[in-house]
Amino acid sequence: MMVKAIYPGTFDPITNGHIDLVKRSAKLFEHVVLAIATSSRKKPLFDLQERVEMAKASLIDVPNVTVEGFTGLLADYAKEKDAKVLIRGVRAVADFEYEYQLASVNRTLYSELESVLLTPSHEHAHISSTIVRDVAAHHGDVSLFVPPLVADALVQKFNK
Q: Where is ATP bound in this sequence (predicted)?
């Protein structure tokens, strides 16, 4: 039985922590879809197409991963993709509480969907897209937190 997993998020921008979770997930499941949400509520720095392209370029070396943008309910998207597993990263207890609620809602909306919570690798535990954007906005060096193409895109966004 092929198990397809979805790792959803806004990925604004994708970080080395996200990439680490995707690569680890790709070892556990036959196929992983990195599902990038439009998320107009969060007012992303990068538009959906930019986020998709950066993620695709960052994950080009992982053959069983695809990157797609999506809109709407995650449970509906997972059902459409026939995914049975939802990957989520948890860095702290606060993340766990939110993810527990989210998992319950998603399972109510799509009973076949199971959530798998992964903790970050030690070297990536402190990284978040929000922190990366804040550092970049103040012209700090983000090269240790994101792939080079993402670091370049952040420099371009904040040097306009």
A: 10-11, 18, 89-91, 99, 124-130
Say if residues 35 and 106 touch (Cβ distance below 8 Å). no
Is 129 labeled as catalytic in the residue annotation?
Answer: yes
Burial bucket for residue 43 (CB in 10 Å: 0-12, 13-18, 19+)? exposed
125 is in an annotated binding site: yes
Three-state SS string across 54-116, please?
HHHHHCCCCCCEEEEEECCCHHHHHHHCCCCEEEEECCCHHHHHHHHHHHHHHHHHCCCCEEE
The answer, yes or no, to whether residue 1 has pLDDT greater than 70, is no
Is 91 one of the catalytic residues?
yes
114 annotated as a binding-site residue: no
| Helix axes of 48-58 and 148-158: crossing angle, nearest 10 degrees | 150
What confidence tens digit (pLDDT) does each residue in 52-74 have? 999 999 999 999 999 999 999 99
Catalytic residue among 81, 91, 107, 157: 91
125-137 pLDDT, tens digit per residue, is 899 999 999 999 9
